[in-house]
Amino acid sequence: MNLDILISGVGGQGSVLASRALALTAMERGLAVRTSEVIGMAQREGSVVSHVRIGEELYGAIIPDRRADFLLGLELAETARALNKLKPGGIVLTGTTTIVPATVQLGLSTYDREAITNYIKKQAGKVFFLDLEELSRRAGHARTGNVVILGALSTLPGLPFGSDQMLQAILRFVPGQFLELNRRAFETGRAAMEVA
Amino acid sequence: MNLKLLMGNEAIAYGAVEAGVQVATGYPGTPSSEVLSTLARLALEKGFYVEWSINEKAALEVAAGASYAGARAIVTMKQVGLNVAADPLMTLAYIGIKGGLVLVVADDPGPHSSQNEQDTRIFARFAGLPVLDPATPAEAREMAKYAFELSEKLSLPVILRPTTRTCHACQDIELAEVTERPRPASGFEKSPNWVILPGLALRRHAWLNQQQEVARELLEESGFNRLINLEGEHEQAEAGVIACGVSYNYVREALNLSWLKIPVLKIGTPYPLPVRPVLDFLTRVKRVLVVEEQEPAVEDQVIALAWRNKMITGISGKNDRLVPREGELDTDKVKTILGKFLETASAVPEATAGAPELPLRPPVLCAGCPHRASFYAFKEAARGTDAIFSGDIGCYTLGVMAPLNAVDTCLCMGAGISIAAGLHRAEPNRRQVAFVGDSTFFHSGITGLINAVYNRANVTLVVLDNRTTAMTGHQPHPGVGRTATGEQGIPVDIARLVEACGVEFVREVDPYDLEASINAARAAMEYPGPAVVIMKRECIALSKKQKSYLIDHQLCTECGLCLEDPGCPAIGRPEGRPEITQNCYGCGICAQICPSNAIREGAR
């Protein structure tokens, strides 16, 4: 099997942890993995994407256009920006969270939430909108949206690993005092999909 | 079994450890930095020495010294760092080495985090040094190990040149258990051959040129170059591809996606190009496409080889403009290139129809970043003048972004102060202010400052001292005193150093104190002669958030100053009126700017 997952967001939202955790889960299932992350200048509040590729015959770490099976978006406009990577009929899980960049305050660009939402609906085979801000607050910390969305992903069919394995992999990236918080965030994401 | 998920840079570090590296040096630079930080993490346990050097030149020289004494040494840097290390490198190639010496020089086609797209493979050829070009993290680790052996066989430094897509890609890698400590160095043996003089240089130049052929022969046996999709010794093909480095991945995947099976010769050792496998390929394939990023480093050698051997094989690539010389390649681009080369109808990519306009999201200085406060203060002090702000390389280059617009020039590491001095010579009546980070100041800013003092340039130098090398992942530097492996060294005090350079106007200010900062900025800019202001405040990523601010809407007149002047990402208009978001770090600059005193401490 081959599975390509793209994670998009804004620098600082934790997309690197999300892609590493997914890759580790797959690796521990005996699958080959590649990831590619944005590290460096673009981290600072800029657009970031992480690529996760899982499978048997893997080459580069970058997912070609229209090949991603899943798109996990941590910020609404960044989800839209990454849609060219989603395969026809691919599945989108996206936060409804918006982070409005300074360029909008300064009138250099616009943030049309409604047009962006409609575009995501139109392009995706299936889309799940998640209020990541509210969900991560419920889990106990505003910065756990990355783990909430992985929890949500773990409820979907088509993954070569179970949700327990995913959670264990995530917790290996997390320092001791935040284990419980991240466990809650993951469960909150799972629970949100039961309602969605 | 020790299976690990490793980033390419980590994989290179593990490869060096497996090779028994004894001395590791480097200067941080994206995308190379994690090689040395990984080595620093492993150093104490595995028993080898690691240092962040003051710059790439010092790093290479320290490594060269260690190698002279027989130690295996590794030096890490980004592509432009090699320019700084070029002076020792070009002659070290003549002198040669004793212990294996490997330079990891990370290239950044794109570029993602660099000021240019220079190709280290061309540099390697210029210096007469072998270069290895890994396609994956796993291969990068194998190459790192092999590079030490090759270096010792040739008595030459060897360059390992990963690109961003290998450095920052992760892969599942099976690691060997390294239990042995590195062997002790064999020791330096005195000989005139370590002392370069013109007579020796001429002899060694001839030796270096001979070594190119020795290297070529050794690389002909290398498994890093291999042929696929051309079975049997006599099989021929109409068309084939030669692919170098990460481009090999794109070629393989593009062929798979296009349901094509044509021969591919993978090149992992672009210089010196191995003759036999390439000649064999040219004999068996009628038309060849060379796919590589950046310069036609392999392609030009293939063309020369074909010419010398009177071959009529068609060779396509950059010279006939099928493959771009600028930017990165990827599977989609290579698919299109292959379509053109093979004259197959390449599927026209479906446009992502009806995409709405998306907000521009360039990287910006973090909320609470002390650099924002420093730029704001100097802009205030320079208000109404035609001062020029020369920038430098680091996070603070982002001061160029609106609304700060506080960087008028940026060229390379340490250039700001000397560019300002040059601008001053051409326009003596214009105020010149140069900004440099603390790590960049030590790297190469200080030479520009001494030059300005010596030649009495009327410039102001602002040292943005955030107590770290922030942009590349918070490496320590001489001003901090802590070494790469966490021991306390001797901190070099910037203010005392600047005074010792002969600067008579030196102030140290906390950028969070806006009034004091603006006053120091004014005084420095009015001072006739070189003046230095050190804006000292630790990077917010290293210190915990202290407090938050909020806007009192009873007092706020919605004038928009807090939004439009500093451009802090923690202030926005989520529901029309200005609000401070939870991203607030608590620097308090906006509170000091607000003309209505509407911003005060407190949680929203």
UniProtKB/TrEMBL annotation, chain A:
<protein>
    <submittedName>
        <fullName>Indolepyruvate oxidoreductase subunit IorB</fullName>
        <ecNumber>1.2.7.8</ecNumber>
    </submittedName>
</protein>
<keyword id="KW-0560">Oxidoreductase</keyword>
<dbReference type="Pfam" id="PF01558">
    <property type="entry name" value="POR"/>
</dbReference>
<keyword id="KW-0670">Pyruvate</keyword>
<dbReference type="InterPro" id="IPR052198">
    <property type="entry name" value="IorB_Oxidoreductase"/>
</dbReference>
<dbReference type="InterPro" id="IPR019752">
    <property type="entry name" value="Pyrv/ketoisovalerate_OxRed_cat"/>
</dbReference>
<dbReference type="GO" id="GO:0043805">
    <property type="term" value="F:indolepyruvate ferredoxin oxidoreductase activity"/>
</dbReference>
<feature type="domain" description="Pyruvate/ketoisovalerate oxidoreductase catalytic">
    <location>
        <begin position="11"/>
        <end position="190"/>
    </location>
</feature>
<dbReference type="InterPro" id="IPR002869">
    <property type="entry name" value="Pyrv_flavodox_OxRed_cen"/>
</dbReference>
From TrEMBL, chain B:
<keyword id="KW-0004">4Fe-4S</keyword>
<dbReference type="InterPro" id="IPR009014">
    <property type="entry name" value="Transketo_C/PFOR_II"/>
</dbReference>
<dbReference type="GO" id="GO:0046872">
    <property type="term" value="F:metal ion binding"/>
</dbReference>
<dbReference type="InterPro" id="IPR002880">
    <property type="entry name" value="Pyrv_Fd/Flavodoxin_OxRdtase_N"/>
</dbReference>
<keyword id="KW-0670">Pyruvate</keyword>
<keyword id="KW-0813">Transport</keyword>
<dbReference type="InterPro" id="IPR045025">
    <property type="entry name" value="HACL1-like"/>
</dbReference>
<dbReference type="InterPro" id="IPR017896">
    <property type="entry name" value="4Fe4S_Fe-S-bd"/>
</dbReference>
<keyword id="KW-0408">Iron</keyword>
<dbReference type="Pfam" id="PF02775">
    <property type="entry name" value="TPP_enzyme_C"/>
</dbReference>
<dbReference type="InterPro" id="IPR017721">
    <property type="entry name" value="IorA"/>
</dbReference>
<dbReference type="Pfam" id="PF01855">
    <property type="entry name" value="POR_N"/>
</dbReference>
<dbReference type="GO" id="GO:0043805">
    <property type="term" value="F:indolepyruvate ferredoxin oxidoreductase activity"/>
</dbReference>
<comment type="function">
    <text>Catalyzes the ferredoxin-dependent oxidative decarboxylation of arylpyruvates.</text>
</comment>
<keyword id="KW-0249">Electron transport</keyword>
<feature type="domain" description="4Fe-4S ferredoxin-type">
    <location>
        <begin position="576"/>
        <end position="604"/>
    </location>
</feature>
<dbReference type="Pfam" id="PF00037">
    <property type="entry name" value="Fer4"/>
</dbReference>
<comment type="subunit">
    <text>Heterodimer of the IorA and IorB subunits.</text>
</comment>
<protein>
    <recommendedName>
        <fullName>Indolepyruvate oxidoreductase subunit IorA</fullName>
        <ecNumber>1.2.7.8</ecNumber>
    </recommendedName>
</protein>
<dbReference type="InterPro" id="IPR011766">
    <property type="entry name" value="TPP_enzyme_TPP-bd"/>
</dbReference>
<dbReference type="GO" id="GO:0051539">
    <property type="term" value="F:4 iron, 4 sulfur cluster binding"/>
</dbReference>
<keyword id="KW-0411">Iron-sulfur</keyword>
